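Recall from the previous chapter that SMILES is a line notation for molecules. Here it describes zinc ion.
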Amino acid sequence: MVKICASCHEINPGGYRCSMCGGELLMVSDDEAQALPEEVWRQQRVDYGARRGMIVRFLGIILGAVTGVFLVREAIVLDGPWNLVGAIAGIAVGLTVWRLIYLAAGRGVRIWVLRKGQLHKRKLARAMLASAKR
Ligand SMILES: [Zn+2]
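With both inputs in hand, we obtain:
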């Protein structure tokens, strides 16, 4: 259950007191939390996106390293000079895997943040339409 701090607007994973400042936590679905300025929510989306991006980048480093080490190990048993060629190629592939995931994570953060912003806009437009019909 995700909660938001009433005083510093830090998102907390449940609990009653903020882990950052010890302030009172609100349920994100509460009217009081919803009444917080849009800027707070936008900032939280950026934070969440950045945090998710960091996790993906971290996974990219591991995946790249594992791929590289695996390929180098495979190449070492080959006869020279193919073991050297294979080892270099293995390292290159590992670096490429890491680089691709790194770039994808950066793009993903922008998409996550943007798409959620657009979703919000669509919801707002729908609400405006509904109130205009009334
Ligand atoms: Zn706080």
